[in-house]
């Protein structure tokens, strides 16, 4: 039975590979205009996997459709959840068309892809705190949106990018707070104090920084640095007068 199962699996794999090969050969023989137009039709119909198949076959074969083909591929990869592929496609586009009028759109899609990689639906559904996960993607997303705000002030994506920056900056502050708690639990007071002082520079107006101040005071007390502990106590009193707005996660917009 195992031999039959293995044989069936092998035959199935062979058929799949052969089918893919024949499909690629079939597309390779089609005119690039037909590939591009079919890819765009599938894209408009929401059949993103088929769109990727045709647009990928057209990509690189014609300068006439090159820019729009790559833009469509970035979007289609994003829509099917292939976020790393979307980011790779965005990087290729930036190298190939650095002066494109659509660069704000590319940065926007890259920002959304990085933000998606920073969390997922299951975590959102169960309201799991994601502050200590996928931090690099969060930083990259912040940088993508910041580029739009700074370099493309007239872009239609500026307002949404600003909203994302506020949210992502808060996420980064929460991540730092999680690290401070980790250090305090292990009585690594020097490391904890350094981290909170960095938070005061980078995220002075965040709830996370306010929450970290009592730990900074305790760290100084444990290290016997009384002057710094007293100054931190004064800072805690000042922060009691601050109000911090509730920051909600922006919706993943369909501004395309």
TrEMBL record:
One of its GO terms (biological process) is Gram-negative-bacterium-type cell outer membrane assembly. It comes from the Bacteria. It is found in: Cell outer membrane. The keyword Membrane applies. HAMAP family: OM_assembly_BamD (MF_00922). Belongs to the BamD family. This is Outer membrane protein assembly factor BamD.
């Amino acid at each position: 039975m195992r031999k039959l199962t293995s044989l069936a699996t092998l035959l199935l794999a062979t058929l799949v590979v052969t089918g893919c090969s024949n499909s690629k050969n079939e597309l390779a023989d089609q005119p690039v205009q037909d590939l591009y137009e079919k890819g765009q039709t599938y894209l408009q119909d929401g059949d993103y996997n088929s769109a990727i198949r045709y647009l990928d076959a057209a990509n690189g074969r014609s300068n006439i459709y090159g820019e729009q083909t790559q833009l469509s591929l970035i979007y289609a990869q994003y829509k099917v959840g292939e976020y790393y592929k979307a980011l790779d496609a965005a990087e290729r586009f930036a190298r190939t068309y650095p002066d494109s009028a659509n660069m704000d759109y590319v940065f926007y899609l890259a920002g959304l892809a990085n933000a998606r990689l920073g969390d997922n639906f299951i975590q959102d559904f169960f309201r799991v705190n994601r502050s200590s996960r996928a931090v690099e993607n969060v930083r990259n997303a912040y940088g993508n949106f910041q580029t739009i705000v700074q370099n493309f002030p007239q872009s239609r994506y500026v307002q949404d990018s600003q909203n994302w920056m506020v949210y992502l900056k808060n996420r980064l502050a929460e991540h730092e707070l999680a690290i401070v708690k980790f250090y305090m639990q292990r009585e690594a007071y020097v490391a904890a104090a350094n981290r909170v002082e960095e938070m005061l520079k980078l995220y002075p107006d965040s709830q996370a920084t306010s929450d970290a101040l009592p730990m900074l005071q305790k760290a100084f007390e444990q290290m016997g640095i009384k002057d710094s502990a007293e100054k931190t106590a004064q800072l805690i009193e000042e922060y009691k007068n601050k109000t911090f707005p509730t920051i909600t996660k922006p919706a993943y917009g369909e501004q395309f």
